[in-house]
C-alpha cells in the first residue's frame, strides 16, 4: 500500500525514461516501475522478436531468454529511435497497443512428452506502468476477511489444518503454479479456479508472491467463527467462494469468471459484453412488467418457498417463475439458458441456493431492477452494494407480498426503478469487469502472503501447471473456455491501489445505513398492504 503511494508520487518527479529491471522473484508488488514513455517505446519493439521468441520457447529450441531481458535490451536500443517516430505525438500519450506479444494461443503440440518446466524454463517478469486508479470499494473487505490473522499471522500449522475440507492446495513459488489435489470437486469448479489463478500469474509476471493456500470448492462456509473466538488459536485460513457472518472462510472469485463448462456459460469477459449488447436490444420500458426468476428450485427450501409466488389463476404476485430443467436444456444445447437473453423483464429476482448463487452477477448485469431476497451468504463483491441504489431488498419470510409491492412500486416510479436497474448493471459492468476481478485476486493473495510466517514450499505430491498442461487435456468446452479466457499478454500496469481498511466505526455506520434503508422499504411495504386491504374491505 505504502509502496503504491510512494510510487505514484515518484512518477510525477520522473523526467527522463527510466526502467527498473523486474526483480525476477520479487514478492513485493510494484517493485517494478516503468515510465509511460518507455512503454511507448516498447510498442515500437518489433513484435516479430517477441513472437519468434515465444515460438522458439514453445517448440524444440531451448533458448532461455526471459521477457524481462528482452524488455531492457529493447528499451535501450529504441531510445534514440523514439523521437523519430513520435515527433508529432506527445510522448506522454497513452500507448495504443500493448507492448508485448505474449504467447497468445495454446500450443498443444508443444506439451507432448514435456512438462511445464521444460516448456517454460524461465519464469517471466516484465515492467509495469504505475496505476493511479484506486480499486473499487468492495476491495476493502480484503482487510476484513484477513483480519483474524492480522495479529498472529498464518503459521504452517494452521494452513495444514485447513486441509481437512480442502479440494486442493495451491502453491505459487517463484512465479510458478503448483497444485496438490486432495479430492474431486463438483464439476470443474476446481479446474477453472486453478486456471484463474494461473491467469493472474500470467497477467502480473513476477508480481504474485510466493504462497501456499488451501481451497475448498463446496458451497457453504465451514470455518465457524465461534470455534475461534477465544483467541487461543487463529482459524485455519481456507479459501472458498462465499462466506457468511458466522464464519471466517476467505472469499475468492468463483470459477464461472473463467467459464462454467457444464452449463455452457462462457468466460465472464465475453458474457459481460453479450449482456451489454442484449441490454440495448430491449429497453426497460418495453420489458415485461413482472419479476422473473429461473433456476433450480430443489437446492434450497427458500427457493421452493419462492415458487409459491408464481402467478396462478386466483392470485398474481407479479412474479413469473420458472424451474430450470438442466437435463432438457443440455439436450437442446442450452439455448434457453443463455444468460444474455434473459434480460427481458423489468425485474429480476436473485435468491440464494445452497450457498450464494453464481447467477447473481448475471442478474445484476441486466439493467433490470434486481429484487434481492435477503441473503445469508456473501461473495467477494456483494457487500458493497446498497439497497435502493443498486437493488431492491425482498423479505425472505414473506416473499410474495414483498415482490408484489416492489413491482407495483417500480411500475409507478418508472424513472427511479430504471435508475436502480442501471446502477446495478453499471456496478457490474464497471467495477466487476475482469480487470478488477484479477486485481481483487492479486490484492487478496498479496495481503494473505504478507501474513505467512513460513517459507512456502512445493510439496512432494504437487504438479506444476501451465496453460498447456491444463487446457490441452481438457474436453471440448473446457478447452474452448480456457482458450478464450487465457490471459493473452501481461498487464501494462500494476494493479489498482488497494483502499485502506475501514475505520473502526465506519463499518458499523455502513451496516447501520444499509439496515435503515431496508427497514424503510419494509415500512413502505407494510403501509402499502395496510392501505390495500382497507381499500379492499371498503369496496367489497
Ligand atoms: C539477461 O541479460 C544479462 C545481461 O544483459 C545476462 O547476463 C543474463 O544472462 C540474461 N539473462 C537471461 C535469462 O537471458
Ligand atoms: C527515422 O525514421 C525514418 C523513417 O520514418 C527512418 O528511415 C530512420 O531510420 C529513422 N531514424 C532513426 C535514427 O531511427
Ligand atoms: C518528424 O519530424 C521531422 C521534421 O522535424 C519530419 O521530417 C519527419 O517526417 C517526422 N516524422 C514523422 C514520423 O512524422
Ligand atoms: C502526424 O504526422 C502525420 C504525417 O507525418 C500526420 O498525418 C498526422 O496528422 C500527424 N498527427 C498529429 C497529431 O499531428
Ligand atoms: C512422444 O512420445 C511418444 C511415445 O513415447 C512418441 O510416439 C511421440 O512421437 C513423442 N512426441 C514427440 C513430439 O516427441
Ligand atoms: C409459473 O407459471 C407459469 C405460467 O403459468 C408457468 O409457465 C410456469 O411453469 C410456472 N412455474 C413453475 C415453477 O411452476
Describe what is shown at a glance.
40% of the residues lie in helices and 10% in strands. The chain has helices at 2-13, 36-44, 47-58, 67-85, 116-119, 141-145, 156-161, 189-203, 268-281, 301-307, 326-331, 359-364, 399-412, 414-431, 434-451, 467-471, 476-485, 504-538, and strands at 168-173, 176-181, 211-215, 238-240, 250-251, 288-295, 319-323, 345-350, 369-373, 392-394, 463-465.
Reconstruct the topology from this structure:
Layout: H1 2-13, H2 36-44, H3 47-58, H4 67-85, H5 116-119, H6 141-145, H7 156-161, E1 168-173, E2 176-181, H8 189-203, E3 211-215, E4 238-240, E5 250-251, H9 268-281, E6 288-295, H10 301-307, E7 319-323, H11 326-331, E8 345-350, H12 359-364, E9 369-373, E10 392-394, H13 399-412, H14 414-431, H15 434-451, E11 463-465, H16 467-471, H17 476-485, H18 504-538
Parallel strand pairs: 3-4, 4-5, 6-7, 6-8, 8-9, 9-10
Antiparallel strand pairs: 1-2, 1-3, 2-11
Helix pairs in contact: 2-4, 13-14, 13-18
The structure holds 2-acetamido-2-deoxy-beta-D-glucopyranose (6 copies).
Protein name: Glycosyl transferase CAP10 domain-containing protein
Region (Disordered): 1-22, 78-98
Transmembrane segments: 32-54
Amino acid at each position: 500500500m505504502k509502496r503504491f503511494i510512494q510510487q505514484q508520487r515518484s512518477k510525477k518527479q520522473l523526467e527522463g525514461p527510466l526502467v527498473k529491471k523486474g526483480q525476477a522473484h520479487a514478492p513485493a508488488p510494484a517493485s517494478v516501475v516503468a515510465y509511460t514513455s518507455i512503454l511507448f517505446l516498447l510498442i515500437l519493439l518489433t513484435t516479430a522478436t517477441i513472437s519468434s521468441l515465444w515460438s522458439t520457447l514453445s517448440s524444440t529450441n531451448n533458448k532461455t531468454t526471459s521477457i524481462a531481458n528482452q524488455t531492457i535490451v529493447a528499451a535501450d536500443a529504441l531510445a534514440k529511435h523514439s523521437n523519430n517516430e513520435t515527433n508529432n505525438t506527445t510522448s506522454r500519450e497513452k500507448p495504443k497497443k500493448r507492448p508485448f506479444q505474449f504467447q497468445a494461443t495454446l500450443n498443444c503440440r508443444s506439451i507432448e512428452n514435456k512438462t511445464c518446466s521444460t516448456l517454460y524454463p524461465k519464469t517471466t517478469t516484465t515492467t509495469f506502468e504505475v496505476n493511479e486508479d484506486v480499486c473499487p470499494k468492495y476491495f476493502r473487505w480484503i482487510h476484513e476477511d484477513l483480519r483474524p490473522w492480522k495479529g498472529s499471522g498464518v503459521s504452517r500449522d494452521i494452513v495444514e489444518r485447513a486441509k481437512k475440507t480442502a479440494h486442493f492446495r495451491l502453491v505459487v513459488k517463484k512465479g510458478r503454479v503448483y497444485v496438490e489435489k486432495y479430492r474431486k470437486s463438483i464439476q470443474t469448479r476446481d479446474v477453472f479456479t486453478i486456471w484463474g489463478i494461473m491467469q493472474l500469474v500470467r497477467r502480473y509476471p513476477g508480481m504474485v508472491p510466493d504462497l501456499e493456500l488451501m481451497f475448498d470448492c463446496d458451497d457453504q462456509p465451514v470455518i465457524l467463527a465461534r470455534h475461534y473466538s477465544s483467541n487461543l488459536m487463529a482459524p485455519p485460513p481456507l479459501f472458498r467462494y462465499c462466506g457468511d457472518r458466522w464464519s471466517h472462510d476467505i472469499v475468492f472469485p468463483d470459477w464461472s469468471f473463467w467459464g462454467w463448462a457444464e452449463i455452457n456459460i462462457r468466460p465472464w469477459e465475453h458474457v459481460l459484453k453479450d449482456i451489454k449488447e442484449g441490454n440495448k436490444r430491449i429497453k426497460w420500458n418495453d420489458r415485461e412488467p413482472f419479476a422473473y426468476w429461473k433456476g433450480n428450485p430443489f437446492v434450497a427450501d427458500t427457493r421452493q418457498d419462492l415458487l409459491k409466488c408464481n402467478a396462478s389463476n386466483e392470485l398474481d404476485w407479479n412474479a413469473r417463475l420458472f424451474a430450470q430443467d438442466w437435463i432438457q436444456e443440455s439436450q437442446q444445447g442450452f439455448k434457453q439458458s443463455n444468460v444474455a437473453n434473459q434480460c427481458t423483464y423489468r425485474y429480476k429476482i436473485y435468491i440464494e441456493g445452497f450457498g450464494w448463487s453464481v447467477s447473481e452477477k448475471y442478474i445484476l448485469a441486466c439493467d433490470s431492477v434486481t429484487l434481492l431476497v435477503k441473503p445469508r451468504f456473501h461473495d467477494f463483491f456483494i457487500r458493497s452494494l446498497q439497497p435502493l441504489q443498486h437493488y431492491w431488498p425482498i423479505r425472505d419470510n414473506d416473499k410474495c407480498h414483498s415482490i408484489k409491492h416492489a413491482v407495483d412500486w417500480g411500475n409507478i416510479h418508472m424513472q427511479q426503478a430504471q435508475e436502480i436497474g442501471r446502477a446495478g448493471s453499471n456496478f457490474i459492468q464497471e467495477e466487476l469487469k475482469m480487470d478488477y476481478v484479477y486485481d481483487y485476486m492479486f490484492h487478496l493473495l498479496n495481503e494473505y502472503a504478507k501474513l505467512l510466517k513460513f517459507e512456502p514450499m512445493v510439496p512432494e505430491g504437487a504438479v506444476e501447471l501451465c496453460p498447456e498442461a491444463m487446457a490441452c487435456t481438457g474436453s471440448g468446452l473446457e478447452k474452448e473456455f480456457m482458450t478464450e479466457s487465457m490471459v493473452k499478454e501481461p498487464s501494462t500496469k500494476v494493479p489498482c491501489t488497494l483502499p485502506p481498511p475501514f475505520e473502526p466505526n465506519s463499518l458499523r455506520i455502513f451496516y447501520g445505513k444499509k439496515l435503515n434503508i431496508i427497514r424503510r422499504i419494509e415500512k413502505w411495504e407494510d403501509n402499502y398492504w395496510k392501505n390495500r386491504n382497507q381499500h379492499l374491505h371498503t369496496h367489497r
